[in-house]
Amino acid sequence: PCRSFHGNNRLLTSQIVSYYESINQCKKELPEYFNFASDVLDEWARLEKDGRRPANPAFWWVSAEGEEVKWSFAELGSLSRKAANVLSEACALQRGDRAVAVLPRVPEWWLLNVACVRAGIVFIPGTSQLTAKDISYRLQASKAKCIITSDTLAPALESVLPSSQFLKSKLIVGRGSRDGWLNFKELL
């Protein structure tokens, strides 16, 4: 099977299937530990840099207003390492800790997702349509140590945050800032 992506015909599906078939047939070694960010994203960035893979965007986002964000594999890798450092250092999260993200689908949603994979942090996505009761339940049930949201959604979340006994850090994504919240863009 072949899939066309922006006019570039490549055998994406068959390449993936053949890779997994080669693992199942013991022709390739299954890694003991697999991390998508370092094992795939960073490898593709290296192959592009070496000229052994055509340069394609790793991430391409377009807002309803036509604003575009386009990152290469190298840029996404670098940004996700920085974001992982923000989560590990400023938010004091460690491997296995949980972070709840209540964000609209902005580029930072995907960046933080990859950063969590890179750092071994469990990323728990939540839609911006969650109620305060929903968010409170998710924070308690997951024992999340960090909540990530936008500057526009933060006021609605603040009412439930004091009751979350595990929450240690609050990270805001957006142009605005709030007292008691870390600003992701500034830290990045």
UniProtKB/TrEMBL annotation:
UniProt similarity note: Belongs to the ATP-dependent AMP-binding enzyme family.
InterPro entries, A to Z: AMP-dep_synth/lig_dom, ANL_N_sf, Mitochondrial_ACSM
SUPFAM superfamilies per UniProt: Acetyl-CoA synthetase-like (SSF56801)
Residue ranges annotated for the AMP-dependent synthetase/ligase domain, each copy included: 52-176
Name of this protein: medium-chain acyl-CoA ligase
Keyword ATP-binding: yes
This protein's UniProt keywords: ATP-binding, Fatty acid metabolism, Ligase, Lipid metabolism, Nucleotide-binding
Source taxon at top rank: Eukaryota
Encoding gene (name): Acsm3_1
Any single biological process term in GO: acyl-CoA metabolic process
Enzyme Commission (EC) number: 6.2.1.2
This protein's GO CC annotations: mitochondrial matrix
Catalytic activity: a medium-chain fatty acid + ATP + CoA = a medium-chain fatty acyl-CoA + AMP + diphosphate
Signal peptide: none
